Amino acid sequence: MTTLRLVLLARRVPMLLLLVVAVTGVSYAFYRTAINVDLGVNPFARPHKIPTPELIAVVTGVLASAILRPRCWEWERLGGIRVRLLAVVLAATAIALPVLPALVGKHTMPAGVDLWWILPNTLTMGGFTLLLSALLGPPLGGAVSIAGYFALALTDNLFPNVEPYLPLAMYPAQHGKWVPALCLVPTALAVHFVTRGLSSWAYRLERNSGT
Amino acid sequence: MIRPSRWPLGSLPLLLPAISITLAVFSQTLEMFSWPYQVWARTSQQFVSEPLIFAVPLSAAAAAYAAGRLTGPDRITNLASSLRSGAPIAIRQLGLLGGVFTGSYVLGMVPLVVLTTLTAHAGGPGPLPVLTGLLSVFTATAVGYFAGVLATTAWVSPLILVLGFLAIQLNMASSGNFRAIVPVTYDGAGVGQTANLSVVGYRLAFLLLVTTATSLMASRALARSRRWKIPSWSTGGLIVLVLAMLLAPLGTDPRLAEAASEPPRTCRTEAGVRYCVHQAHQPELDELIAAAEPVYQAYGNVPTHGEQVWDSALLGGSRADSRPDGIVGVGIRVRTDMAGSKRSLQRQIAYGLAGSPACAVRFPERAQPDMARTVLESRHPADIATELSYWLAGRAEQTSGLRPRISDIPAFGTASKQEVRTWLAAHERRITECALDSRP
Fold first, then answer.
1. What number is the ipTM of this complex?
2. Out of A26, A55, A63, whose CB is closest to B155?
3. Which of A26, A33, A65 to mutate: most B Cβ within 10 Å?
4. What is the DSSP string of chain A?
5. What are the structural domain ranges in chain B?
6. How close, in Å, is residue A109 to chain B by CA atoms?
7. Nearest Cβ partner of A62 from B28, B30, B158?
8. What is the pTM of this model?
């Protein structure tokens, strides 16, 4: 039990829970708002709406990947299958917890508005973030993840017919896009199993010690 | 080689947000570039609308990132034991960040301002909204910097990005409860209005206070090795003051704009009707006259309650009930869609000629039915007036050769043009009093 407690503390799980409670509260308060992304370049394109809960979920995923990053990397290299399993469980937690802020206010929405498509979007973005956080490290992975998310919004606004080819469902979507989520989440978990949470390349990048 | 560096982070953490802010701000103004001419009131107001929605969160998040990276207690750049720790560090870093981000905001707005200088017909820039917009970006930078100093980690910056988006859109999320504090609203001073100095001044004072308080607290935190401590009396007082200014205007309904006293106007009399527009809308005068003539043709003569047609910017944005008698007010919007603008003008003039403003005064609580059919079946005087406005606008639409929209509504059934005109002549008094009780 002591070992488990130490591991949970080393990965700062209590901090993560605190963060999730806070962002869930914020998301509930602002559940019905959205950010309009409209470059105005294409007069026929409708403005792209980023729902606030979805943005909060993406950012929560990035912060979760940073909070849960392995801080005793050299020591964890020595561990066996249990460390690998722990890395997978923590990655799965980081992917799953943003669902809370993403769907917390769903019941407050009007009857005609269906928001289930935010669930696969959140899982896709969570899987992507965690995949990158293991391969590139949390700072670079998080930056790519958030920048990519806004880039998708811009792409959707700039090219009116591109929506079916994007990995995320865009407001007002009819159906969620499950295929990217089902591909990315297992890949991310597998990568966390192999790398135990952080690849040695990302570790050296973080330590600034070259390859 | 050791080179002296004032900014240990390199150029990317400054350059990337600065470019993003400029591009985002510029793209938000692009829609106005398609207008045939610019209006100073709208351009000034643009400084506190959509562009800020992106500039504020971006500058706050970038400042939080820089502060998180630079100001950790273990950083050589600001050890607590250093002689310069505290205010000098905060002033230098915050000055650089705030200057660059405010500058990039200005850079994004420059094309629109230049275009307005070249094409606007009257007036000049409104200093208050422009100042509010610039100060908002600087305040956001200071708040983000403060958050980064307290968090001692750059990981706070994504959170600040989200919170920045939420804070700047508070008015949209709460139907305008925070208009006295948060600069982005949609009821700022338009054409023919001036900013309400007390409310806008309060807002500026609040932004200044937040900037002062956060930079002061940041420099105090930087001067000690522990970033968090129980606040001193002066810091506590500042926090209380910020909270008081934040909470005081809640629940009030501040007016951000008031009518200008003597708005400059351009008038012309044409076929017995006096048309007046605000000088900023000068090119619309010909269009207004061209749109109005078919409506008066449909009416048959110029009634006493329709002898003047005024741009509502000249009426101080006053609502129908406080309008002087004998003036039909029309809201003029600058836009590129000529047919749509003509249609809208004709509807408004028909609305005024049919006596609907009088109905709004006489039955203030009554809501206009959504369905045209309900209007046609109703016996309420306000609905008969609305039906008359459908009839007038429909005839005008046909005369102007616009695609039929309102003329598809079978207003007054099978009554011929002559029958309606005879009925109009007999009921002119009832129209001005909103007392119609029969149809032709």
1. 0.90
2. A63
3. A33
4. -HHHHHHHHHTTHHHHHHHHHHHHHHHHHTTT-EEEE---SSTTSPPEEEEHHHHHHHHHHHHHHHHTS-S-HHHHHH--HHHHHHHHHHHHHHHHTTHHHHHTTGGGS-TT---TTHHHHHHHHHHHHHHHHHHT-HHHHHHHHHHHHHHHHHHHHH-TT-GGGSSS--SS-SS--HHHHHHHHHHHHHHHHHHTTS-HHHHHHHHT---
5. 12-259, 265-433
6. 14
7. B158
8. 0.88
